[in-house]
Specification:
The chain is an alpha/beta fold. The protein contains four helices and four strands, in the order E-H-E-H-E-H-E-H.
Length: 120
């Protein structure tokens, strides 16, 4: 039986750069938490999408809102987007007071946020 010619096929190498991240926060948003978030963001590729799940935060004070705003601005400077998820709806009021809906879109689930960020 004769051997047929073997044709090498070019395949694309998977992109291992991180273009999505979901960070779930719990407890309180303080300096230690911010450091963890910043380390996670540093690993993201330019133009990435970040979802921060704040469902398990005990509360969100002005410091926490400021941190989230700074993170969202950072993501936009990098060509990316950021959204928040809150299954319990506890932080809706804190964000609503500041008129931050455009900068920090809020969703009830990670799946909903991913779908919305994927459209942008």
């Amino acid at each position: 039986m004769g051997r047929s010619g073997i044709v090498a096929e070019r395949r694309e190498v998977p992109d291992f750069q991180r273009t999505w991240a979901v960070i779930a926060l719990s407890g309180s948003l303080d300096d230690a938490t911010v450091d963890q978030i910043e380390r996670e963001i540093a690993q993201l590729h330019e133009g990435a999408r970040l979802i921060v799940d704040v469902s398990e935060l005990h509360f969100l004070d002005d410091y926490g809102v400021d941190v989230l705003v700074l993170l969202a601005h950072h993501m936009r400077r990098q060509g990316g987007l950021m959204a928040l998820t809150d299954r319990r709806g506890a932080i809706h009021e804190a964000l609503g007071r500041g008129g931050l809906a455009d900068l920090l879109p809020l969703f009830t689930s990670v799946a909903e946020a991913m779908a919305a960020l994927d459209l942008d």
